[in-house]
């Protein structure tokens, strides 16, 4: 077994290091962006979080915005896991490993954004059980750490087992991976609800202290995540010989459509609650959607997001438009960007405004924050490219364990 594993590692490295000119240019580009991110991060390590746009008034910014959004992207893998492993829907079979690879990349980015937001890796010991202040089970942050790392382990172990069996030319045993798949379905819902509860449980922040926040997190996750999966599958479909059926994309498109519609309904419900009978607790929402006391930094962002959200949902709602792949890809791109804005700046920053004494301190990310953020996104794309390239080669039969070669050696 160990010999097979070593052989898999060697063959995977060979597959990763060799590819077309476009592949090498893509990897070089991602490496360049990661180096920029690392440079910006060294500046942050040297000078602290003072080089970011965050202050004691707005203590969460671009890093936590991306973390919150990417938790939803990671959870969206369940959209492919459930029908493939549990319901035996063969239309999703070719796409499920790609979706789980995307979940792994998203979770790695989530953890990287948390480290960046904490200032540096040297403070991570505070989260270690028995050494730091883990505070289990009272702390929702502790629950989030357990949920994210557990989901990362599940999304690594199940695909690895399946690919390891396929690498040997064997079928994966359902009795081994189906229990894990069922667990991942429940865990995917859990990681996003726990993340929502982090905000929802803060009574002093009325913008977040909303019973609808958890369900809306799930709706937006199952819209943006599968939308990204569709775009990634489209790229793989047109850049490799890996076969992705039309009906697979169409089925995922239906999931995106329903989730986007539910997300819009929940948005309307929140707007009604905030503005029909406004109280002083509605000031955060007023700041976000209309500005407050002349402060309007988020207005262009949120109205752009809502416009894109509505346009994308309308395009997806009509069956004929959704089945046109060019329109589908365009709508998914709009939806992904819209939810990134809405679930990022549109959720995190307004929660801090106005402050406890009514003061408005607006937040604008600095170049350092943007550089670190781009570097982490490049890291995620780099990891996903490596995972997808290896998985595709194994699934196509181009990577196989060679017993004869190993025995001679």
From TrEMBL:
Q: Which residues cross the membrane?
A: 23-44, 64-83, 95-116, 145-164, 176-199, 219-240, 252-272, 298-318, 327-350, 370-392
What is the protein's membrane topology class?
A: Multi-pass membrane protein
**What InterPro entries has UniProt attached to this entry?**
DsrP-like, NrfD-like
Tell me which Pfam families the record gives. NrfD
List locations, semicolon-separated. Answer: Cell membrane
Q: Which UniProt keywords apply?
A: Cell membrane, Membrane, Transmembrane, Transmembrane helix
Q: Which residues form a coiled coil?
A: none
Task: Say which family it is in.
Answer: Belongs to the NrfD family.
PANTHER family referenced in this protein's UniProt entry, alphabetically: POLYSULPHIDE REDUCTASE NRFD, PTHR43044
Name of this chain's protein: Sulfate reduction electron transfer complex DsrMKJOP subunit DsrP
Natural source organism: Aquimarina hainanensis
């Amino acid at each position: 077994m160990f010999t097979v594993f070593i052989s898999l590692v060697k063959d995977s490295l060979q597959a990763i290091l060799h590819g077309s000119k476009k592949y090498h240019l893509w990897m070089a580009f991602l490496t360049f962006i990661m180096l920029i991110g690392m440079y910006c991060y060294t500046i942050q390590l040297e000078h602290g979080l003072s080089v970011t746009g965050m202050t004691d008034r707005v203590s969460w910014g671009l890093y936590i915005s991306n973390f919150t959004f990417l938790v939803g992207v990671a959870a969206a893998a369940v959209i492919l896991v459930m029908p493939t492993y549990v319901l035996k829907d063969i239309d999703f079979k070719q796409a499920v490993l790609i979706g789980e690879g995307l979940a792994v990349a998203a979770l790695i980015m989530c953890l990287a954004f948390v480290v960046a937001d904490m200032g540096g890796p040297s403070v991570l010991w505070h989260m270690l059980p028995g050494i730091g202040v883990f505070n289990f089970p009272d702390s929702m942050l502790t629950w989030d750490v357990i949920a994210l790392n557990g989901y990362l382990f599940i999304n690594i172990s199940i695909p690895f087992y399946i690919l390891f069996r396929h690498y040997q030319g064997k079928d994966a045993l359902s009795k081994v991976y189906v229990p894990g798949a069922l667990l991942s379905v429940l865990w995917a819902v859990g990681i996003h609800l726990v993340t929502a509860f982090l905000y929802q449980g803060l009574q002093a922040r009325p913008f977040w202290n909303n019973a609808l926040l958890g369900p809306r997190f799930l709706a937006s996750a199952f819209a943006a995540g599968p939308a990204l999966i569709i775009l990634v599958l489209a790229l793989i479909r047109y850049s490799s010989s890996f076969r992705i059926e039309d009906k697979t994309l169409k089925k995922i498109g239906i999931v995106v459509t329903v989730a986007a519609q539910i997300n819009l309904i929940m948005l309307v419900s929140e707007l009604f609650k905030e503005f029909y009978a406004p109280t002083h607790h509605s000031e955060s929402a007023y700041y976000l959607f209309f500005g407050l006391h002349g402060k309007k930094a988020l207005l262009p962002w949120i109205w752009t997001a809502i416009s894109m959200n509505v346009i994308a949902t309308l395009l997806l709602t009509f069956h004929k438009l959704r089945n046109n792949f060019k329109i589908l890809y365009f709508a998914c791109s709009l939806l992904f960007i819209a939810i990134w804005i809405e679930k990022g700046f549109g959720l995190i920053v307004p929660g801090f405004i106005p402050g406890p004494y009514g003061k408005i301190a607006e937040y604008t990310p600095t170049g350092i924050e943007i550089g670190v953020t781009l570097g982490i996104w490049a890291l995620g794309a780099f990891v996903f490219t490596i995972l997808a390239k290896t998985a595709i080669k194994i699934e196509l039969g181009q990577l196989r364990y060679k017993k004869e070669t190993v025995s001679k050696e």
